[in-house]
User: Which sequence fits this backbone?
């Protein structure tokens, strides 16, 4: 049996971090396969799905609002409903929120400017497949690059997510005006996770930080586990 | 049938875009006490009646044109 689990990296018109994600996952031991948005099925043996960053469908209407109608999203819904790990990065996070797979919505940054820099994050939960390699309260340095990354939920929803332990990552510094400084949330079942920072741009200290590898390597672990379980 | 949909940031939700517009207008010398920026969608809807057009637009808003977490919407049907 191959030790390299298969991870599907979706490609929408306007995705631009798909190759970085695939390269990083490959470097971390996965067999990453780019999957075009018009596909109706995920490749056989897919152990995890990544929705990468970018500007799918030109960010028309609202970020992620159109991408949720892509044919491949039905396959992703099915995969997620079956417990498969799904990771949304930046625009991928926006898509998962608009698709109702993750709670909340991403809005224009508080100061309206596009933010492109390293930020410090704090790991709030390690009981997700994505943060298993992190320690509770650990600080990670991972870059963000977004104009619409201010996560919003009303008070009721936010309290519910807090109580359910769905706030997984927070900014450890002022960033974009997100409610509760939320940088990443998961669904109630904990197998779908989205975050604005880009772990795929932080997998080698040469690039400033290797902290993103902690999250992506955990995803590779989860994909391997899933491949074994469904083989 | 012509249908116009107005999408607004919900009451009470911070609208940084509106604030920036307000600031700019004030710099131009206009006494503007507040500005909120939304979106307008003009539609040509195939429908047998104004009510049917309105019902369709309502569903469009719920399913795509507005995000109910942060936006409210208003529908105007031409001639209705």
Assistant:
């Amino acid at each position: 049996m191959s030790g390299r689990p298969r991870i599907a990296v979706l490609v929408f018109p306007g995705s631009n971090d798909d190759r970085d994600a695939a390269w990083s996952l490959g470097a971390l031991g996965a067999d990453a396969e780019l999957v075009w948005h018009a596909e109706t099925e995920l490749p056989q043996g897919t152990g995890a799905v990544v929705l990468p960053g970018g500007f799918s469908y030109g960010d028309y209407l609202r970020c992620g609002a159109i991408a949720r109608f892509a044919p491949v999203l039905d396959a992703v819904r099915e995969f997620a409903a079956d417990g498969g790990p799904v990771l949304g990065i930046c625009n991928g996070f926006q898509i998962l929120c608009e698709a109702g797979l993750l709670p909340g919505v991403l809005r224009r940054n508080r100061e309206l400017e596009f933010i492109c820099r390293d930020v410090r994050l704090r790991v709030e939960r390690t009981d997700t497949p994505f943060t298993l390699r992190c320690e509770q309260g650990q600080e990670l340095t991972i870059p963000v690059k977004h104009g619409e990354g201010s996560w919003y939920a009303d008070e009721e929803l936010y309290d519910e997510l807090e109580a359910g332990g769905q706030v997984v990552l927070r900014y450890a510094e002022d960033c974009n005006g997100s409610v509760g400084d939320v940088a990443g949330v998961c669904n109630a079942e904990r197998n779908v996770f989205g975050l604005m920072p880009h772990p795929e741009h932080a997998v080698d200290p040469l690039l400033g930080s290797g902290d993103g590898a902690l999250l992506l390597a955990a995803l590779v672990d989860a994909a391997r586990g899933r491949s074994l379980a469904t083989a | 049938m012509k249908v116009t949909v107005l999408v607004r940031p919900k009451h009470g939700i911070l609208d940084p875009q509106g604030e920036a517009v307000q600031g700019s207008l004030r710099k131009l010398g206009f006494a503007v006490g507040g500005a909120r920026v939304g979106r307008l969608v003009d539609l040509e809807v195939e429908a047998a009646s104004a009510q049917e057009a309105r019902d369709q637009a309502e569903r469009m808003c719920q399913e795509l044109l507005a995000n109910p977490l942060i936006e409210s919407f208003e529908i105007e049907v031409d001639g209705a």
User: Anything to note?
Assistant: The interface with chain B takes residues 61-62, 65, 98, 104-105, 107-112, 152-154, 157, 177 of chain A (CB under 8 Å).
